[in-house]
Amino acid sequence: MAAAAAAVGLERTIYLGGLAEAKHGHLSKHLQSRIEVAGILQSGPVPKSIALPLTEGLTSEALCQENRIREIIPRQLMTCREAIRLAIDRLQQQKVDTCWMDAGRLLAPEWAHCGDAQWAGGTIMACGYRAVLKAGTDDVWESVRRVGGKTGWYFGDYLWRLRGILDRLAGGVGLRRGRRHPTEIGVGDALDFWRVLEVDPPHRLLLVAEMKTPGEALLEFKINPMESGRVALEMHSRFMPRGFFGLLYWYVLYPFHQYIFFNMLKAMAKSMNKPIVAGPERFTQERHTGCALPPKHGH
């Protein structure tokens, strides 16, 4: 840990453990309580459910002295500092093919591909906004595919950060995952507390929420070419509530959805320096009631 901190230029932080009553005697004297450990990990990018067991594992010393593998598979080895430096260089050069944040199974909501008829129950709540821009499809897609990570969400980043903090407090992933690459995007990629479910450049990006919510949520960006060099950029959120608290969650956040979507479309147009000729305006996307197999995607 000290070698990694030195490689990225972080100053050494001294933590005084044992400030709270120790409830777990197996922890080291520097990590006296799970409450204190959780507080430290709350500021890191790794989910607490993963980072806490890893941190507790620091109490067990493990020094490998078995080196016969080097005789079986002879190769030039790197030191710990060299390996860390190489990893950091690849991050800075944006040459990362896989990342820990993309690990895990991609779980797509069943209703994302196969919607029930209106009378079948399981109401899907929706909120959509559309803006018509004087721009090309590729110009708009360039803005869409950069969303999240260091680019942010174009508008109301403080609200997104607040939602990320609340998600972390609830045991979720929060916003700290970022994204693997600032421009490249593929199915299964993590995007803050979303994950890419479908991508069809330069027309569509569908994200599934991995934040803690009383239901299942999707966020979709669609780019529809129009006549006279115009493009319709659409943002559409869908939510399948789980019980009463799911419905309460949706209606409490619905005004914020309207506020953010409206201004986010304006900010995206500004970021690409393209004028808005109509909108942003609210719209209701047509709901598909027929069942269809989900499209196949490859990395």
Spell out the blueprint of helices and strands.
Elements: H1 2-7, H2 34-41, H3 48-56, H4 69-72, H5 80-92, E1 125-133, H6 137-144, H7 157-169, E2 190-191, E3 194-200, E4 204-209, E5 215-225, E6 231-241, H8 243-271, E7 276-283
Antiparallel strand pairs: 1-6, 1-7, 2-3, 3-4, 4-5, 5-6
Helix pairs in contact: 2-3
What does this structure look like?
With 299 residues, this protein is of the alpha+beta class. The chain has 2 domains: 2-92, no CATH class; 111-283, Alpha-D-Glucose-1,6-Bisphosphate, Chain A, domain 4. 30% of the residues lie in helices and 18% in strands. Helix 2 (34-41) crosses helix 3 (48-56). The model is unreliable at 17-25, 27-33 and 289-294 (pLDDT under 50).
Q: Which properties best describe this structure?
A:
299 residues; alpha+beta; Alpha-D-Glucose-1,6-Bisphosphate, Chain A, domain 4; 2 domains; seven-stranded antiparallel sheet; 8 helices; 7 strands; 30% helix; globular
- CA-to-CA gap between the ends? 32 Å
Unreliable sequence segments: 17-25, 27-33, 289-294
Number of distinct beta strands: 7
The CATH homology group name of the largest domain: START domain
Please give a quick description of this structure:
The chain is α+β, with helices and mostly antiparallel strands and 299 residues long.
